[in-house]
Amino acid sequence: MKKRTAAVLAVLMLCQAIWLAGCAAENKADTVAENRESMAAETAVEVNGADIDADTAAEDGERADVDAAAVAVQTPEDGQLSAEKNLSDEGTENGRTSAAGEEASGGRTEDSDPAAYTGAAIPARFQDGVNGFALRFTRQMLEEKGMAENLIVSPFSVWLPLTALANATDEEAMEELLSALGLSDADMAVQNGLTEQMIRSLQQEERREWLRQYGEEMDSPLKIANAVFVGKDMKLQKAFKSVFTDVYQGRIFRVDFADDGAVEQVNAWASEQTDGEIQDLISHFEPETVAALANAVYFSDGWSEEFSEELTKDDLFCGADGEETVPFMNGEFDSIPYYAGDGFEMASLPTQNGGRLMLLLPAEEGEAAESLPGGEATSGDGTAEKPGPGRSAEEVLAGLDPPELNRLLDADRTAVHLSLPRFRLESDTFSVLETLEAMGVPLSDDRNPHIDGLANRPLYLSQAVQKAMLEADEKGLTAAAVTALMMAEGALMDPPEPVELKFDRPFAFLLTADGGDAGPVVLFSGVVNRIE
User: Fold this and answer.
1) Can you point out the beta strands (E) in 267-372?
2) The pTM is what?
3) Which of 449, 452, 487 is nearest to 168 (CA)?
4) Which fold has domain 92-302+430-489?
5) pLDDT tens digit sequence for 200-217
6) How many C-alpha atoms does 29 have within 13 Å on its Cβ side?
7) Which residues on adjacent β-strands are paired with residue 378?
8) Could you report the per-residue pLDDT of 280-290, keeping only the tens digit for each?
9) CATH classification of 313-421 is 3.20.20.10, yes or no?
């Protein structure tokens, strides 16, 4: 009996020993994991710290060979454009992986369909702010053009450099500027983060990185470029330089605005960024120009369903200046977004990589239909019908606001037989400064310059110009625009008019002496009622 009891106790003690060993091993594994996480965090801090040090060293001229923040600017003698820094093709900037890309993944796995990944989501309020600026800007430009003239503008190419410039604006003007940009509820830290995410999403950077993991390559249809051209006597502020290169993926160039070569340098950059579509953006710089912030937007993509060139036929286009015979592309589309509403119809032609050309056709006079909730006009039997009494194309476009734009973007799909002229629009260089002033952008007052965070002297917006084009044919469409915001130093305040003060009547006086710590001490006082 004693032997059996001893055996049982031995077994129990062995089990307890095994259990305790297992617990110890688990605790050790947890500790190792925690240590690894801590080491990874410390390593990340060291990487970011190295970036900061590299940027600081480059600013001070101590380490010109640091690629992460090296400034390669152009001097008037070298005749070549050179970039300040290149972003990694692997989707990291200065050693930091984009958090937006991780959030956008939605927990995707290696078995996920790469074609289904479309990039990070942008908050609806932010998107409405950007699109709201675009619609207001378009409305203002419509008011300034002649009735029979074409219009081609890029609101986004104006919005983006102005948003970058908000980082260099003093507090007095920043709130007003953000409001004009449709961003009144966002501080600059939030704004910069959302803008960086939007730029990456628009250029489909996360999607391209995702596809690359599967051995697939794709070119983004949209290319966005930003640059700041700095005069030889100007020095960029470090804070603006950091935001501009990291968030806005900008490049920095040194130019001599007093030399004709500056015009050639800016025009060469504009042409390079738009595949040669935008030429001769700048004819000259005003003598007071000391800096220029430029943006280029280039979009080129094929239609999801191409038009057959065999179906292109000449037909009449009844334009503002009368009838003309032009080539019309014709296509039978089984399912594209279509909307019929307040005085116009809309058909949306999708491109291969997520773009869409929204075509708005005003109703002809005398056409009538009932506009139902949701914006679709139908007849009594439920079939789609032409919308009622039409407006001009300008009125249709000017009447859009973000809610109606969203209805157009969410339009149902249906079969459409579409007949569309081949067309190309190309503008001359035009000023947008007056438009921006009318929209409440508070940066053009030379007597009260608000751009104090870009360079070592306060600046104001002295010129703002854009040039744009769009071409649509059977294969697809191409659109390009370049905007340049020129800045000059604020003017010195005129001395105030002297006050006329003539003591030709009785007057009083006080005479004080310096009392040191006691301050001025009145020694004499009196009144002069007559001159003796």
Assistant:
1) 289-302, 313-319, 322-340, 344-350, 356-362, 370-371
2) 0.71
3) 452
4) Antithrombin; Chain I, domain 2 (3.30.497)
5) 988 888 888 888 888 888
6) 6
7) 370, 384
8) 999 999 999 99
9) no
